[in-house]
Structures are given as C-alpha cells and as structure tokens.
Please model this.
Amino acid sequence: MPDHPNQATQDEAATPPQLPSEPKHESVPEPRPVPDPDPDAGPDAAPAPAPAGDGSSPRLWSLPALIALALTATVLIAATAWHLGTVFLSIAPSNPASQRYQSAINAHVMPEFEQNWQLFAPNPLQNNIAVEARLQTLAPDGSRAQSGWISLTAHDIAAVRGNPAPSHLDQNQLRRAWDYYTSWHNLPSETSLGVGGPLSKEYLKRIALQRIGSRDWRGNQIIQIEFRSATTPVTGPSWTAAAQKQQTSYVTLQWWAVSDDDYTGLGILG
Model:
C-alpha cells in the first residue's frame, strides 16, 4: 500500500498515457506509369497493336507474305549454291561430277565467270602472248595492198599501263578471244573442233575490226584480215625450268574475208 493516500494518484499522473497503436496495412504495389502519348502523332494515329491473348508478340507479316519471303530465300540460296558449285567444279581437278555435267558447267561459267587457274594446282601463264593483225585492202583501180603487222595487244597494254582503274575489256577481251579461238581449233591447220569454232572465229575478227576502228586503211577498203600470235617465254633463274632466253615464236593464221556484215553493231560507219 502507498504510504500516502495520494501517492498512487501522483504515480498515475506521472506516467504518460499510451496512444493506441495504428493498425498494420499490407503493402500495395505501385501502379505502372502510363507512357506519354507520342507528341508527333496526330489525333488519327492508329493505336499500338495489343499483345496477343497468349502473351506472344503480335504477327507483323501475313501468311502469304511469309510464304513469298520463304520462296524468295529458297531461290536465292539455290542460285548461290548452283553458281558456287559450278565455278568450283570448273577449277577443281577432273572428277566424275565435273565430267558428267561438263556441258552444264561450261554453259554457266563460260565466258563471264571463267577462271584462268586450277584449284590445288595453280598453273600461271609462263609466256607473254601478243595478238597481231594485218590488213589487205582494195584500191579503186582494183589493186591490192597489205598493211604491216599491227599489235592489238600493245594497244591494250598502253591503255592499261598507268591507269589506276583499267577497263576489263582492255585487260581481258582480246586475250580471252584468242584463247577461245585456239581452244576450238587445231593450229596451224585451223581445223574447227566443234560448234564453238565458227563463233570463236567471228568473235576474234569483230574485236580486231573494232580495235582498228575504220572500214578502210589509208583510204582503201579493207577486204581481208590475217592474225598471228607472238609468243615470248618468261625468263627465270638458271636453277629453274623457266626459259633462259626471250626468243619469240609466231603462229600465223590464214586470211579471213571481211564483209559489211562483220561491222554490224560495231558502230563503225562506212
């Protein structure tokens, strides 16, 4: 008992009253912010596509479009595989596949994609081959005359030398035309070896006439043209099998008649 009757009252007055505790609330996730509308979009702008019901992204391409893309990709892959395969077989060593499909390979590769080397066995040219031509003309009095030998290859070399971006025609057209002709003919008899013989002859003749650039020579009509090749071996050190002397050898073809039809499409006026 308290010693004094008012002691209990004083103790109760000294103790501060306790406030009732606030009730505990469960945490509530904050709402996601709503993105601001595009200020550049007009009032008629279409709303963004809503996600699919299963949570996947909406389809951006229709089924016909996907089919068209798949077919296009298939055609491109097949064409690329065909091109790389035929070029590979054309430079690879002879094998059953290249022998069986030789005609199809040549039809695709020749002459645009032809490679002047062989896979696994590079064999660069060991000779400098120049193609030369001379002309036979007909004078108004019926007399004939011959020009000197004109080096068509020297003309191409002059156009290439010192040119940072030489033309593909100056570099390869004449050389490949001569290779094309010799591949389809036995020299020096000039016997054709097949269907490519007449075409290679006309191709070489028209290139030469285009290089000359005129239907007459020194005022007289050109009626015939003759070709020859000048082959000079590339010399090398004495301890190699390369030639030691630059001795030029020549192969001269027969005279070929020149007509107005040979100038068709060449842009050379009479």
Notes: The longest helix spans residues 63-91.
